[in-house]
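FORM 7B: Structural annotation worksheet

SECTION A. Query
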Amino acid sequence: MKSAVYESFGAPENVLRATERDRPIPGPGQALVRMRLSPVHNHDLMTIAGQYGLKPSLPAVPGTEAVGVVEALGEGVESLAVGQRVAGGAQETWAEFYLADAARVVPVPDSVDDETACQLVSMPLSAKMLLDTLEVTAGDWIALNAANGAVGKLVSQYGAEKGIKVLGLVRRAEAVDEMAALGFSSVVATEGEGWQEKVRALTGGAPIVRGIESLGGDGASQLASILADGAQLVSFGAMTGRPLKLSAGDLLFRGITVKGFWGARPPVKPERIGELLGELVRDAAAGTLKLPIEKAYGIDEVAEAARASGEPGRKGKIAIRGS
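SECTION B. Predicted structure
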């Protein structure tokens, strides 16, 4: 079978290539899945670069989530059927076939398109788990940067459903209009002077008690500047690849605390994850959860897919196309 592979850590567009490998055989509790579409996530690219919290043994096949069709079942799997379309987290998904833990994938209704199904777990589930752990209630204000990213939009959407008020920060003024067209009105661009005053006007001066930081570098200090004293800043990502930049005064004199969130080590109980996954499938089937793909690349084009994923201004994820 055809598969993407990397034999050393480095810039993904330089180290990724396509190769031929043996088709894996499902073991007990596993399903062999023929991959249809697998997204290129930031954490996938960080793993290939050797910058993520988990480092696989080399050579390695990338990919952590996909939608596909069950080809064969391992011993003891009764929850799935051959020919069934399934989505969920797995490993080595940038290949024509991959193995999935049967307990970690979910059947996908026909009403859910492949583009949404292949992204059903990583970002939406993280957004729901994050909101579960923020310890905020209806009426509270939270803020996040990279608001026009997939997770930013999902946190805004799911937060609003809970009555939580979400303020989004974006880097470009054009992105404010783009977000407004999607129905997100509480968005401020950080380019130029006076953007903090726009924040205060939107919130009416109400305290912002949580900040979700996905940029790293100066993004952390920007976000901290609009948080209330005693607020909590949650490090969710590091899109710039730079360390968090925070002043000692924010921590010492304003009492702002910092914690990290990593979906690979879920902060909620397993049974709650099952409940949240059920909610996501229902949302997708009802059409309230739509996750677009900007462009899909074949496995032979995996290096080009990695390069395209880093381009700004995309309207959706880049994905790897299977069969």
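SECTION C. Observations
The longest strand covers residues 30-39. The longest helix spans residues 270-286.

SECTION D. Sign-off
Analyst initials: ____
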